[in-house]
Task: inverse folding
């Protein structure tokens, strides 16, 4: 329990790291703006004006925007940016396997795509 | 005599990992919450990656804009993304109120913590309510675990029942995979949100009973906050992969 108190007091001193009320609302507006941008692309450019079409490019844009949003949530709302760097590495390093998993499943999906097309499961109209 | 050089071995070690202090300057429970969230992130990643792989493997896929295009009580069709946009906004908003509660906890302001926790719980309940409406809507259309609108039909009726949900080729398998994965993944996420609401209610009642005031720290709010932000984080990905792409 004494350890607990040490940390609690240490907390008060340096840990706020730029996340006062103003900072919190700033991050909120960043997240809102990114979401609004996604809607603008989806409803405006793709659906309404038909400037862009659903496909690789639009997908990449969405994924990048999503990752940026994830960064802001993890770094600022979950406060990870202000933790010790060794902790950040410890939490983050496992996600190498997720990247590897995505690559594996895309290779598998590509294989299946080829075989599903040569043996259709349902007669495509 | 005048030399003060200390041999390398006799020097007192004072690095973060030399003992005597917490190297990460984090409380044990908070570290464990992080590690739990990492493992939970793996579970959600596995679900979403499987969804992506299926979508990639099928020659054709359902068009999300045609499945999700109603705003309950306002428009029956023709409004893709609007309702899910409202849901996303609610969840981001409740994440903000959660950070504000944590911030109030840092300043030991009990009243503010209570106020922001109440807003957070309200946001969570609103989100789960919207999710329930969405599920009901899809269920009425014929989507469910192991079922799509064409299940039980034969011949031309199959293509006819599925035609409203596809822009390209129609596939019974793709519609079934979509249905299964949608209910599994949003269900698992909704389950997390429900647990989050429960945890929020527990820490709120602990705040009201002055438990944290007596303890001298509102760290528990931070730990539950981490979980709540994680739920929001997962929704960011679910939103992209189910509704946008």
Result:
């Amino acid at each position: 329990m004494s350890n607990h108190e040490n940390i609690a007091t240490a907390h008060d001193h340096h840990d706020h790291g730029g996340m006062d009320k103003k900072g919190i609302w700033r991050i909120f507006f960043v997240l809102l703006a990114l979401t609004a941008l996604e809607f603008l692309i989806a409803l405006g450019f793709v659906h309404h004006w038909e400037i862009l079409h659903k496909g690789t490019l639009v997908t990449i844009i969405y994924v990048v925007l999503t990752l940026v949003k994830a960064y802001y949530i993890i770094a600022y709302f979950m406060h990870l940016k202000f933790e010790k760097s060794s902790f950040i590495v410890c939490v983050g390093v496992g996600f190498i396997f997720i990247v590897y998993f995505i690559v594996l499943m895309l290779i598998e999906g590509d294989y299946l795509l080829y075989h599903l097309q040569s043996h259709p499961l349902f007669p495509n109209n | 005599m005048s030399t003060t050089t200390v041999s390398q071995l006799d020097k007192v070690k004072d690095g973060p990992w030399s003992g005597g202090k917490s190297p990460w300057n984090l409380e044990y429970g908070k570290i464990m919450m992080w590690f739990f969230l990492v493992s939970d992130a793996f579970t959600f990643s596995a679900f979403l990656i499987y969804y992506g792989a299926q979508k990639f493997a099928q020659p054709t896929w359902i068009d999300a804009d045609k499945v999700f295009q109603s705003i309950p009580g306002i428009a029956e069709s023709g409004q893709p993304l609007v309702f899910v946009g409202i849901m996303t906004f609610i969840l981001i908003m409740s994440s903000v109120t959660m950070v504000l509660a944590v911030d109030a906890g840092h300043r030991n302001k009990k009243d503010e913590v209570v106020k922001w926790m109440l807003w957070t719980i309200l946001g969570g309940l609103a989100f789960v309510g919207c999710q329930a409406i969405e599920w009901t809507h899809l269920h009425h259309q014929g989507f469910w675990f192991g079922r799509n609108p064409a299940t039980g039909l034969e011949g031309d009726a199959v293509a006819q029942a599925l035609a409203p949900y596809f822009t390209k080729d129609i596939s019974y398998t793709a519609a079934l995979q979509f249905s299964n994965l949608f209910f599994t993944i949003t269900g698992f996420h909704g389950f997390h949100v429900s647990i989050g609401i429960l945890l929020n209610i527990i820490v709120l009642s602990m705040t009201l009973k002055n438990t944290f005031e007596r303890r001298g720290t509102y760290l528990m709010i931070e730990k539950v906050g981490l979980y709540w932000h994680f739920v929001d984080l997962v929704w960011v990905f679910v939103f992209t992969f189910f509704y946008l792409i």
User: Anything to note?
Assistant: The helical segments of chain A are 2-14, 21-48, 56-77, 85-92, 95-118. Confidence is low (pLDDT under 50) at residues 1-6, 8-16 of chain A.
